Every structure is written in structure tokens, then in C-alpha cells.
Amino acid sequence: MKRKKIVVGNWKMNMTMDQSNSLIKELKSISENDVEIKIAPSFTNLHNAVLLGQLSSSNGQYIEVVAQNIHSEERGAYTGEISAEMLKSIGVKSVIIGHSERRKYFNETDSILSKKVKTAIKYNIGVIFCVGEELSERENNNHFNVIKDQISIGLFDLDAYEINKVVIAYEPVWAIGTGKTANSNQIQEMHEFIRELVKDKFDHLRNKSTNDSAASESLRILYGGSVKPNNAKEIFSLQDVDGGLIGGASLNFADFSTIIKAANG
Ligand code: PEP
To answer: What are the start-end ranges of the E strands in the chain?
Structure first.
């Protein structure tokens, strides 16, 4: 099955509103229609990004806007937090959940992340669910177990319909922002492993009478961790890689547009 590639720029805590607006305008000039381009700006820039991203342009380029976080509860006394309904009300289509920086600096556990996933999906917000092992876990040959736990706790109480709202991003923690990239074998074997996990859990639940494609076949699995213009093409050519989650290199047009082009090829 041919899966359309996705390239997501995770802007983290970068970009003023002016910087965000001008990069989105540049991105709108790209015409790579075989790639879904998504950006995840900070909360303060989300609404403007939605308006700019959906503006019609001569080349028909649409930029989908993703939030970097969401609260697990639907509403209430949670000062400083942002709910699914708020995101929905400004046109945000999806949210990153489980990024290693949220796990590490904000103590987000697998069970909190599972709740966030459920809440997002309840409001029909797509989820980009990040998983990844620490370097020590890989060195101890425990990386497959770590990913299996993260995925099963985070996603396995979804049903056969809900899992279709999820994109998984494999991001080895030791490769994020470090300039170290996992090699092609490490990436392909982990992506294949993730697709197998989803297959075992969800594929038998599909509704064959309505000809639904199997969840594992349509699932997009992104790689993240120091994807740069010079390595993107090789990574995106791997069989089970369906695009990338890009941090540092998504902050400037030259690098990000080269990476997007690499996903089109
Ligand atoms: C990320 O933060 O998700 C990421 C992959 O960052 P970088 O590309 O900078 O490693």
C-alpha cells in the first residue's frame, strides 16, 4: 500500500509571531503535492498559523497546523493549560503527544500520555505519538521492550477506528537535537517492529465488510532525530519510513524545504 509521506516541523519554544508568519508564507510557496506538510508552532502562534496555512494559494499548498501539547482533562481548574476543545475551536487538526522533552522535563508518564491520546481523539484531533529509547536502553539491548511498552500503554486501549487517527513518530532520544542520527538498519528494523505491534493488536479488528484497509498498512510511522537536508533522502527511502518529525532543521526555510522535497522523491 502506498502511504502519503508526512513531514512535520516541531518548532518547540522558538519563533516569535512575525518569524512564524514569514516562515509559513515561504512554506506556502512549495509545491510538493505528494507530501503532507505540517508545522507545530507554539501556542501563541497557532491561530495565525491556521489562518495562513489554509489560505488558498496558486499552487494549492496547504499547511496543516499541529499543537505541541494538550491537557488530558477536557476542562477545569488547570491554570496555564490548553484543552482539546480550545485547539479544535481554532482549527488545529492534530497534536504531538509523548515527545521525549515532555516525558523528561514535564514528567509525562505513559499513563498520562494515554489519557491525552484518548482526549484528543474524542475531539477528533489527530495524534502524532512519539516513542523512543534512551541511549542506555539501546546499549543494554532493551530498546524493543521500551518501545513496545510505550506503544502498548499509550495506544492499545484505542479501538480499530481510533487508531486510524494516530501517526507514530519513532524518535530515539539520543538522536534528538544531538546531530547523531540512527543508521538506516536501526531505523528500518524499529519501524518494522512498530508496524508489527500495530498489526498484532489491531488488524484482526478491522471491518472487512466495509473494505477498511488494515490499520498497520495505512499507519504512517515517522522518523525523528537529527534529520537534516543531507540525510533526509536516505531515511525517507526506507520501506517503513513514512516521513519525518523535524526539530532544528525545520526552523529555516532552506533546510526544511530541502527535507520536504526529499520526501517527495
Ligand atoms: C524533535 O524534537 O522531535 C527532533 C527530532 O529534533 P531534531 O530534529 O532537532 O533532532
So the answer is: 5-10, 35-40, 63-67, 94-97, 126-131, 166-170, 221-224, 243-246
Look-up: residue for cell 484505542?
158
pLDDT digits (tens, 9 = 90+) for 73-91: 999 999 999 999 999 999 9
What 8-state DSSP symbol labels residue 213? P
The one catalytic residue in 71, 99, 143, 191 is: 99
Q: In the chain, what are the domain boundaries?
A: 5-263
Position in ligand 1 atom list of the atom nearest CA 244 = 5
From the CA of 211, how far away is ligand 1's center (Å)?
A: 37
Q: What is the pTM of this model?
A: 0.96
What is the whole-number distance in angstroms between the Cα of residue 138 and the centre of ligand 1? 18
Note if 71 is an active site residue: no
Burial per residue of 140-158, b for 16 or more beta-carbon CB atoms within 10 angstroms, e otherwise: eeebbebbeebbeebbeeb
Per-residue pLDDT, 209: 59
Distance CA 74, CA 147 (A): 28
Confidence of residue 48 (pLDDT cuts 50, 70, 90): very high
CATH number assigned to the domain covering 5-263? 3.20.20.70
- pLDDT for 170-190, tens place per residue? 999 999 988 888 999 999 999
Query: Measured in angstroms, how far is the CA atom of residue 39 from the centroid of ligand 1?
Result: 13
